[in-house]
């Protein structure tokens, strides 16, 4: 069984925070061979959304946090644990994130810096590419945006 969890930073238990940081490091630092500051201040203001397995491990994860521009929020650190891929968790996770964001009255636009190989995936949810792809610590990304119609 997999449970969907959605918590602010100060609601996370130490074990949940450990599992989140372990999953993010495993995917973004180790698997993608990318040395960068994985833990940052955005964690403190983010809503952390993830699917947890029965053993507590993070199967899929993302964080949602306010962007600099009013009415904009950012989806970041989207991942599916390597052993949990090919089960539709990324689609379920992103849909859950968008559902939560759309319920917030102050949020009109969602921004994401997508790894370029995932732009078609995000486009399937209505995200549109903005600008040119860019290198972020050795991994190519594409800024994308989605505007909610309310």
Folded structure, characterized:
With 150 residues, this protein is α+β, with helices and mostly antiparallel strands. The chain has four helices and eight strands, in the order E-H-H-E-E-E-H-E-H-E-E-E. Strands 1, 2, 3, 4, 5, 6, 7 and 8 form an eight-stranded mixed beta sheet that branches. A hairpin with a 2-residue loop joins strand 7 and strand 8. It starts with a strand and ends with a strand. 23% of the residues are buried. Keywords: Acyltransferase, Transferase. InterPro entries: Acyl_CoA_acyltransferase (IPR016181), Bact_Acetyltransf (IPR050832), GNAT_dom (IPR000182). This is GNAT family acetyltransferase.
Q: Percent of residues in beta strands?
A: 25-35%
- Apparent shape: globular
What is the arithmetic mean of pLDDT? 92
Name of the CATH class: Alpha Beta
Specify the helix fraction band.
25-40%
Rg over C-alpha atoms, rounded to the nearest angstrom: 15 Å
Instruction: Find the CATH topology.
Output: Aminopeptidase
What class do helices, strands and sheet pairing give?
alpha+beta
Distance between the first and last residues' Cα? 34 Å
Main beta-sheet strand count, sense and barrel state? 8 strands, mixed
Number of domains: 1
The total count of strands amounts to 8
Q: For this structure, what is the CATH homologous superfamily? A: Gcn5-related N-acetyltransferase (GNAT)
Task: Enumerate the spans where pLDDT stays under 50 for 5 or more consecutive residues.
Answer: none
Seen as an oligomer or otherwise, the chain set is: single chain
Helical region count? 4
SSE sequence, one letter per element: EHHEEEHEHEEE
The CATH architecture assignment turns out to be: 3-Layer(aba) Sandwich
